[in-house]
Amino acid sequence: MVRVRNVLVSTIAAIALAGEARATGELVYPQDGRVRDIGYFGAPRVGRHTHQGLDIARALGTPVYAARGGRVTFSGRTDPYGYGTLVEIDHGSGYATWYGHMRTLLVVSGQTIAVGTQVGNVGVEGNARGTEPHCHFEVRRYGVPQLVPGAAYQSIARGSPIPRTYSGLTAIASAGATSGPLRAWLSQGGFVNVRSGPSTSSSIVGAIKTDRTCISHGTNAAGDWLAIDYKGHEAWVNRAVLTPLPARPVVRVKVAQTSFTNEKGSPVGIALSNQVYPVHGETPTRYEIDWGDFAYAYLAKASVWLGSSK
Ligand SMILES: [Zn+2]
User: Is the pLDDT at 21 greater than 50, yes or no?
Assistant: First the structure.
């Protein structure tokens, strides 16, 4: 990999913060924490390249979330003296975000995820051993590290827009969604439009068939639009065209991906790790799941965590 030597100096993050106070929200900060004093972007390092990301410190095990929806292109171990462990998410337009030093990885390569999906937990893998636990967060475009604003000791709030324009990416339409409990809904009355924002003037990005379920994880401020995961991105549906499902449990697939089966136990598809599915019914050993065209696919109970749709 070509290492690009940065000529940025320690003040550049502060300058960027002052000059671009209005967040445009193409990317959001991935974690709650505090910028390490030596871990801001462009920090000089004796005898080495300057720091190419942002180190966000917090206790071991603190969740780390995707800064934008996309496709996971790497999740695993790397150089034991470098990142240690790494998740890479491809966001399109040449952009990728990297998350290093994590103790646990909760996504798998090839998985499509939405902004805010938990990708792992803060750890001390790689060259973070001996330091306070932190996530090393990078934004790259065509492999070249991009500025991630953040000054030493600055407090970082997970999900807040990164105050910099990453040209080529559109702003995340859902920025500002309130988070809420996972809840299952049934689409009725024909195709339900899925939109890029919480408004009928937002562009249509897809549709949900009648009698299909979707999972919401929040609403807009007025509560009349629901934020859902749709093909790896956060999208919106009007609450009026959905029927809330009774308080059925919601299951979340464990870290290792597993197979959906038919009634006879034969595999019919892959359930991706950390994905959420609503439950229709259950037997002592498996849940009946609404999944794609397999209205009666099953997941082994041992392969899921239970959530709550209340
Ligand atoms: Zn770092």
Answer: no
Q: How far, in Å, is the centroid of ligand 1 from the Cα of 111? A: 25
Q: What is the mean pLDDT of residues 58-81?
A: 90
- The region of weakest confidence among 57-71, 163-177, 256-270 is 163-177
Q: Which of 111, 100, 108, 158 is CA-nearest to residue 133?
A: 100
Q: Which CATH class is domain 177-310?
A: mainly beta
Q: How far does the centroid of ligand 1 lie from the alpha carbon of residue 39, in Å?
A: 5
Q: How far is the CA of 162 from the centre of ligand 1 (A)?
A: 17
Taking the C-alpha atoms of 250, 108, 198 and 201 in order, what is their torsion angle to the nearest 10 degrees?
A: -130
Q: What is the pTM of this model?
A: 0.56
Give 274 Cα–ligand 1 centroid separation in angstroms.
Answer: 26
Query: Which residues in 61-100 are b (16+ Cβ under 10 Å) and which e?
Result: ebbbbbbbbbbbebbeebeeeebbbbbbbbbeeebbbbbb
Ligand 1 centroid – CA 270 distance (Å): 34
pLDDT of residue 100: 97
Q: How far is the CA of 291 from the centre of ligand 1 (A)?
A: 40
Task: Give residue 237 CA to ligand 1 midpoint distance, Å.
Answer: 38
Which stretch of 155-159, 250-254, 285-289 has the lowest confidence by average pLDDT? Answer: 250-254
What separation in Å is there between the alpha carbon of 53 and the centre of ligand 1? 6
CATH of the domain spanning 12-156, picked from 2.70.70.10, 3.40.50.11550, 3.40.30.10, 1.25.40.10: 2.70.70.10
> Which is more confident, 147 or 183?
147
